[in-house]
Design goal:
Blueprint lengths: L3 E10 L6 E11 L4 E5 L6 H8 L8 E9 L2 E2 L5 H7 L4 E4 L3 H4 L6 H12 L4 H14 L5 H4 L9 H12 L6 E5 L7 H18 L2 E6 L2 H7 L2 E6 L2 E7 H6 L4 H8 L48 E4 L2 E4 L4 H13 L2
Parallel strand pairs: 3-8, 3-9, 6-7, 7-8
Antiparallel strand pairs: 1-2, 1-4, 4-5, 9-10, 10-12, 11-12
Helix pairs in contact: 4-5, 5-7, 7-8, 11-12
Length: about 325
């Protein structure tokens, strides 16, 4: 049984023009001990899908349907009070911006201690001792002193480490990391990824890694789900998707990465156009207006093709992919 199994997730928002669907029938699973990478451009629905599963969207304007099973329990049907018990204790969220995730008027230690007290009955001294140990685990120098500092007194990399420590404070089974390396310089990014990898091994947590960086997915993830315009267009083991990508959108993402070997390219590939706005999608493949291999049939809903765990929604078959992908290569 999967730790988290999401099926046919759909998220719609009310607007003056009527309901606008931002996430369309998204399905994915996370097994125990694995890292699932969810990748795509900004606005593709990556973060919204996980926030909806965690009950962190405003139910006054958002309608969430489908199924999200965590350890056999339906998350979408839980009352808010029960959902709050699971968030932080069993499922933790590492927010994209640590400065806004942390309360500026409370110290780092006070916020970690509050997180522990919200889910466990321990003394304040024991909670503070655990907070010191967590800051040491995430490699913050002088953790006893850092505990009494405010978020603005830490660098961006140190704040991100503090958020990771808070997420791990109750030893969750699943960690959702939303762009954990955004706005960090390259050296600090590498340190944060090394930290997540080490903590995954020591704590045994599964990880959902939300990112737009295919390099981070290649380094960290076991499986990957590629999202575009609120849909999962391709999913499978990282090695399969990177070595034999099926969907033209995945080709474009991979072609935009500088190669580590071979001749230096004069110009990296850039996917033409812009993603469609929610509510403007027509029947058929959402990528059709930007796809170099688009055909007339692409204006109808694409079929799901699969080979084991590797799946994609596209009309191109195995005999057509090689020639079609050369069009992307010719544009680089």
């Amino acid at each position: 049984m999967s730790l988290l199994d999401v099926q046919n997730l759909r998220v719609s928002f009310t607007s003056e023009a009527g309901p606008v669907t931002a996430v369309h029938d998204v399905s994915f699973r996370v097994d125990a001990g694995e890292v699932l990478g969810i990748v795509g451009e900004s606005g593709s629905g990556k973060t919204l899908s996980l926030l909806s599963v965690l009950g962190l969207v405003d139910k006054r304007v958002a309608t969430v349907t489908g199924q999200a099973m965590f350890r056999g329990q339906s998350l979408l049907d839980l009352p808010d009070r029960e959902m709050r018990r699971i968030r932080g204790r069993d499922i933790a969220l590492i927010s994209q911006d640590p400065m806004t995730a942390l309360t500026p008027v409370h110290t780092i230690g006070a916020q970690i201690v509050e997180q522990i007290h919200a889910h466990e009955r321990v003394s304040r001294a024991a909670a503070r001792a655990r907070a010191v140990a967590l800051l040491a685990d995430v490699r913050i120098p002088s953790p006893e002193k850092a505990l009494d500092r405010y978020p603005h007194e830490l660098s961006g990399g140190m704040r991100q480490r503090a958020v990771i420590a808070m997420a791990l404070s109750c030893n969750p089974a699943l960690v959702v990391a939303d762009e954990p390396t955004t706005a960090l310089d390259t050296t600090v990014q590498a340190q944060v990824l090394d930290l997540l990898r080490a903590l995954r091994q020591s704590h045994g947590s599964s990880v959902v890694l939300i990112t737009h960086d295919m390099g981070v997915v290649a380094e960290m993830a076991d499986r990957v789900a590629v999202m575009y315009a609120g849909r999962v267009v391709e999913t499978g083991p990282v090695a399969n998707v990177f070595n034999q990508p099926w969907h033209p959108y995945t080709w474009g993402l991979l072609a935009s990465i500088p190669p580590l070997t071979g001749a230096r390219q004069g110009r990296l590939y850039s996917i033409p156009g812009m993603p469609p706005a929610p509510g403007t999608l027509l029947p058929g493949c959402a990528y059709v207006a930007r796809c170099p291999a688009a055909m007339a049939v692409c204006h109808t809903p694409p079929p799901e093709q699969g080979n084991g765990a590797h799946r994609a929604f596209c009309f191109l078959d195995a005999s057509q992919r090689a020639a079609a992908r050369q069009k992307v290569g010719a544009l680089t």
